[in-house]
Amino acid sequence: MRNVKAAVCVKCGAEFDAGHDTYTCAKCGGVLEIVYDYEYIKSRLTKEILTSSKDFSIWRYIELLPIEEGARLSPLRGELRCMLRAGWSPLYKTEALGEAMGLKNLHVKDDGLNPTSSLKDRASAIAAVRALHAGKDTVACSSTGNAASSLAGAAAAMGLKSVIFVPERAPIGKVTQLLMFGATVISVKGNYEQTFRLSAAAIEKYGWYNRNAAVNPYLSEGKKTVSFEIAEQLGFNSPDYVALSVGDGCTIAGVWKGFKDLYAVGLIDKLPRLISVQAEGCCPVNRAIENNSPIEWMDENTLADSIAVGAPRNGDKALAAIDESNGITVNVSDEEILAAMRLLGKTSGVFAEPAGAAGTAGLIKAAKQKRIPEDALVVSLVTGNGLKDIASAQLATKLPAPKAAGIGAANAAGFSSRLIHIEPDMDLLNPLLLHPQYP
Amino acid sequence: MRNVKAAVCVKCGAEFDAGHDTYTCAKCGGVLEIVYDYEYIKSRLTKEILTSSKDFSIWRYIELLPIEEGARLSPLRGELRCMLRAGWSPLYKTEALGEAMGLKNLHVKDDGLNPTSSLKDRASAIAAVRALHAGKDTVACSSTGNAASSLAGAAAAMGLKSVIFVPERAPIGKVTQLLMFGATVISVKGNYEQTFRLSAAAIEKYGWYNRNAAVNPYLSEGKKTVSFEIAEQLGFNSPDYVALSVGDGCTIAGVWKGFKDLYAVGLIDKLPRLISVQAEGCCPVNRAIENNSPIEWMDENTLADSIAVGAPRNGDKALAAIDESNGITVNVSDEEILAAMRLLGKTSGVFAEPAGAAGTAGLIKAAKQKRIPEDALVVSLVTGNGLKDIASAQLATKLPAPKAAGIGAANAAGFSSRLIHIEPDMDLLNPLLLHPQYP
Q: pTM to 2 decimals?
């Protein structure tokens, strides 16, 4: 790869070739970061070239991705392989949501509209292409859900087998999704950390391609494309702030890397401040920042399953991203997350899963605390689709049990729900239906 | 609208102005079709203009849409209104799926990747823009689910209120989704026909904007954009066949209109044959074609809720589309639909809801019956995301009850499931894990 210089350990600085078998530092075990030849890339990834590109997926930025030329081609006929279209999700300017939190220039990036409905599709696309190019026939990972379904989907489209390790608390919607993609699913009766260790041992033993973001340095390279898109969709400008939820740490590391890459090749002229949002019940990264201490294990007490990571595997990269960006930390309760889900849906037509809305919840809180200037250019990153976790959405909407209510019951309850059950022959002139609260 | 000539009744031929209050024929009550000035449009919508367009949404085809100039602009500042990005879903060439059914040139159009995860977003975008332009503050419809959530989402993004009538059998995922968008939901204890009649009476009484596809002739105009995209994504070529599921009839009417429009303005040089797929348990449109008789009411016996429409409201348009295209009818069982869902996921990484996969199920059946030449250029249209109906996906994956199985139980059951539950400290060398069937 002419565009990649090396894989460098973020702990000890040792350099390695960015080859197929390079995962973690062979010297100290640290996480690796991919270093590019920005001078080489500068002339190949300009505003003009991007503006005329017709590839609206993560591959429009291939000059800044760790992919060999030809890796995406089928060896038989030289055509592009069948693969899912990851990336180029919409960036919405949402005035109503901005007004609700007192921000005048707020955008929402809806990454729930990726092929398997989460941001993780960006990383899994890179993993699947690299796995095939490395001659593997099976890919594997441990995941609370979205990394899993994205990997299973990407693998299915490209003819790879997949083995997925999930903790037993993974929502049934996510497990079902990856079974539909033909994955072999190992449900571990334990927490994320135990699931991760088990997957690592199995991957080592059986020689599968390792898509664990904690270990595989190429995944945050996929995730960083979301920052490329944000900047390009803002007319090659960096936002002042980007709010996002943090679990394992890989996503915030990728987001930060994306903006640094663009800055290095001259496509943006400043860098954003990151707003790192975690759940109050599981915030080891933010706690480390706030206490200026190392990351320590925490329980995983939040309904936002995708960010319920007690022992973040990319903690070092996450801390660096928050530090370097002069970032802000915000911890939110489950109630604040559910409220943010409702607000996103009602004001913007964006349906987010809890972890997907946690970034918005943190932004609401930070804005209320006047930590964000009201005229700042702000992007709230929604990382996953609400359809993935209907049980939490039901909590958010306080949906009554089907058939339990009637129009009279709804009225008696003060129309606290917006779901009204009626008989088909009901008199439409019934004034209850036109209660002042409706529609 | 300079590009629109009139709204013409498909039954009696009467012509009307395509204005705000034009829904059905004022003379005979028939459904209206929007007629364009193709000569005027020809010079404004060329391959060159489209190829250089940077708008990757349904609005790239605005010259062929019934929208006033300026209707999408906010009156206050002349900027584009906040709205969801409907359209430009991916078209995948899926060799593995094609091989499975003996077709050499098969593509899947994944319309489950629209903003609220179904094709209906295309129609609701048109409805919301026209409602705002007509000065309405509330939009309403009856729907088995997807039209509803798409309308609620589009309305939320544009600051409109929405009132949705759903039959009580609508899957909880769909109801929850539209509650998240802030809609007022009226759940009717009856079938789709009763729900529709109730919504019509309420809309009439309260003067809401009517988004019922049976009545509103502008909705199939939104849906037709899927055909524009298919042709453009195939390099301005028409497929030989397009397979899709049929419920109310509005979607197949829109798909056919789209290809006819493109043909009329010279962007394609032939028209496809439509493959109309219905559920065996509810196939009034196909039965009418097969028996050369009028459409008659049928029970609604299928798990594919989005196409369980016993009395299709756009039946006339649907019959005309099938007739004019020299179309093929195929009826499929629920088991065939579930099998198609599994095959789509496993071979292509596309997760479809039952009605979304029904078109593929019909295509599999027609191909097996040798009704489709193996080298034909075929598109299978997936109309909705599988995450919308996890209960059906669970049926398709035959998911065992969580925690009920163990590695031993899985083995004892002959590994009939690909979901394996294990303890976190399980010995990974356990040969059961490496049963020949896994991964």
A: 0.92
